[in-house]
Write a structure and sequence with these properties.
405 residues, alpha/beta, Aspartate Aminotransferase, domain 1, Aspartate Aminotransferase, domain 2, seven-stranded mixed sheet, four-stranded antiparallel sheet, 15 strands, 40% helix, globular, binds pyridoxal-5'-phosphate
Length: 405
């Protein structure tokens, strides 16, 4: 049985903030005791730099760090040597864009993105396009909040060298049919990069079944600490990829003028890594695997359906995103013409924490005809009563702002 009320007890933040209705997990999730303990224990018992010494303490630190890599690999259905530790999804996407893009893209080549991308999956490609002369195209979003698949078919061509898309939108909650789209891209000879920042925490991911070449995630959105994320790369692609950052730990041999590089994943982990954070991410992957990602997804689905039903009954509330099996636990909304910052401040007075702004998705908000929105997002510890508190607070806010709507 998946019981969010019981799960909640694993998260000290809720005992310390008993009235908090935390609906901002899409920005960053809370952390279970097991993640906090894994990091504390590492610092108290095992800390030394990794990979560089022959003494027992350093070997224990190295083992714990590499063990965490194995856990992330298992979480994604990947092999351990295909997992590169990075700080977050942003760094993972920059790594893929710069290391692959700068070495493979030429003037006139096309980079295919989508209109629902987070800025983390737009700006790195813009930087690379500016330096290579490649051209950016983007798959539009339909009125329902899904990718326009007809437009995808016509935008994808032999000129497309790379297709980079989010598996789940951080604003619409839409889960994209990545496997199908990546297969089509592969047929045209393009690689696919998947931004899994929102999907990996919420649904089962087997990277090889996605037909993709890279997969990016952020640990802090999946119960892990800030400062640790991962980039999965298909082995054949990673092997040919030149490094992104240079320095210690990523080399084979260094001369004054040139160097040779270590094999992946070390080639992409220059300098001292975020060791405790990687260990925390490993503990988070363990916690989620124990819950079962099918169960996590089912819980999200039930809660978002409940939330959409309840929120639809709030007058003047504009809801974004599709309804259906392809909708995850993210609900963006606006209340009439009220600025979402004012709305969120009013909700906060009732103890309800939601995010507001453009959620780093300005092109998508332009498509939605909104400059910003408020966003509630759910996770393993979110309950129906959290949704009820949100709805109640929204109704009170509506009464309070009646003259301004
Ligand atoms: C879809 C998506 N991609 C990428 C990111 C970037 O994540 P981070 O800030 O952890 O690098 C986010 C963060 O909100 C996101 O929602």
């Amino acid at each position: 049985m998946f019981e969010p009320e019981t799960i909640k007890r694993d998260f000290p933040i809720f005992a310390n903030n008993p009235d908090l209705v935390f609906l901002d997990s899409a920005a960053s999730s809370q952390k279970p005791r097991s993640v906090i303990d894994a990091m504390t224990l590492y610092y108290e018992r095992d800390h030394a730099n990794v990979h560089r010494a022959a003494y027992a303490l350093s070997m224990r630190a190295t083992d714990a760090y590499e063990d965490a890599r194995g856990k992330v690999a298992r979480f994604l259905g990947a092999d351990t040597d295909e997992i590169v530790f990075v700080r977050n999804a942003t760094e993972a996407l920059n790594l893929a864009a710069h290391a692959w893009g700068l070495n493979n893209l030429h003037a006139g080549d096309e980079i295919l993105l989508t209109e629902m991308e987070h800025h983390a999956n737009l700006v790195p490609w813009q930087l690379v396009a500016a330096r290579t002369g490649a051209v950016i195209k983007a798959v539009p979003v339909t009125r329902e909040g899904r990718l326009d698949l007809d437009a995808f078919d016509s935008l994808l061509s032999e000129r497309t060298r790379i297709f980079s898309l989010t598996q789940m939108s951080n604003v619409l909650g839409t889960v994209n049919p990545v496997a199908e789209l990546a297969a089509a891209a592969r047929e045209k000879g393009a690689l696919t990069v998947v931004d899994g920042a929102q999907a990996a925490p919420h649904l089962p991911v087997r990277v090889h079944e996605l037909n993709a070449d890279f997969y990016a995630l952020s640990g802090h959105k999946m119960l892990g600490p800030t400062g640790a994320g991962a980039l999965w790369g298909r082995r054949e692609v990673l092997k040919k990829l030149p490094p992104f950052l240079g320095g210690g730990s990523m080399i084979e041999e260094v001369q004054l003028e040139r160097s040779t590089y270590a094999p992946p994943p070390q080639r992409f982990e220059a300098g001292t890594p975020a060791i405790a954070e990687a260990i925390g991410l490993g503990a988070a992957a363990d916690y989620l695997m124990e819950l079962g990602m099918e169960n996590v997804w089912m819980h999200d689905r039930q809660l978002v359906e409940y939330a959409l039903d309840e929120l639809s009954a709030v007058p003047d509330l504009i809801l974004y995103g599709p309804r259906g099996e392809d909708r995850g636990g993210v609900v963006a909304f606006n209340l009439g013409s009220l600025h979402p910052h004012d709305l969120a401040t009013a909700l906060d007075e009732h103890g309800v924490a939601v995010r507001t702004g453009h959620h780093c998705a300005q092109p998508l908000h332009r498509r939605l005809n909104a400059t910003a929105s408020a966003r509630a997002s759910f996770y393993v510890y979110s309950t129906k009563s959290d949704v009820d508190r949100l709805v109640e607070a929204l109704k009170k806010a509506r009464e309070f702002f009646a003259g301004w709507l």
